Amino acid sequence: MERPRLRIAWLYPEYTSRYGDRGNIIVLVQRARWRGLEPEVVQVGLGQRADFHQFDLVHFGGGQDRELEIVAEDFLKVKGSSLGEAIREGLPVLAVCGGFQMLGSHFRTPEGETLRCSGILDLWTESSDQRMTGNVIIESDLWGKPRTVVGFENHSGRTYLGRGLKPLGRVLRGHGNNSRDRMEGVVFKNCVGTYLHGPVLPKNPHLADWLLMRAVQRRYGDQVPFPPVNDELEERAHRAILQRFGPH
Predict the structure, then answer these.
(1) For 103-124, what is each residue's pLDDT tens digit?
(2) pTM score, two decimals?
(3) Considering 59, 155, 197, 238, which one is annotated as catalytic?
(4) In this structure, which long-range contacts are made by residues 230-235, counting pairs with CB atoms below 8 Å and at least 24 apart in sequence?
C-alpha cells in the first residue's frame, strides 16, 4: 500500500542553514516517517519559482546578514507573492530568524537603509547595536494550554508585530523579538515565525507535531491518522534546558 505523501519546501538551503536550522528538516522528515507518511523535501533556491499551493509545509531558515540581503531580493521578486497567498490560505510554515524577518514589510539596516521584504505579515525589523544571544524559554498557548518552547537566539534585529498578529509566546528567559515587549515569534493561521535556533524542533517535538498535524489535516482531512510517537528522548532534552536555564 502506498504511503500518504507530504511535500516539504526548503527555501534557500545554501544560504539559510548557518545555525543548524537544517536539523528542523531532519526532524520533520523523521517524525512524518514514524507516522507512516512519505515526506518529499524539495529544495527551492535562488531564481527558482515555486507554486507553494503544491506544497504541504515550508521551512525558511536563518542566515548571516550578507546572505539574507541576497535572499531578500529573490524572495521579494520571485517567491513572496506565491508564498504569501498560500500562507493566507493556511499553508503551514516554519520561518526561523532571517526567514521570520523576511515575512515582514522591511528591515532597517545599521546604515539606516531600508531593505524591502515581502510584506506577507504586518511585522518589521530594525537593526540595533545590541547582540541578543543566549538560551530562550517561552510560554506559548499554541496548543490551547500553556506549554514551554526552548531554543537559542542570536540576532541583532529587533522585530515588532503589527496589530492583529499574535506572538508565538511570552518570554520567560531571553530577549525574544526585540528585548522590550517580552514577545517571541509570531503565529498567523498555520504559519510560525521565531528567532529560536538550536535547531528548535528537536527539543520541541510538540511544535514539530503542530506543524505536521496541520499539514496532514490540510491535505488529507481525517482520512490519514496522526498517531502519537515516543518522545522520551526529546522531552528529556527539553526538560534539561528548563532545569538548567529556567526561571528560579
Answers:
(1) 999 999 888 888 889 999 999 9
(2) 0.96
(3) 197
(4) 231/205, 234/202, 234/203, 234/204, 234/205, 235/205
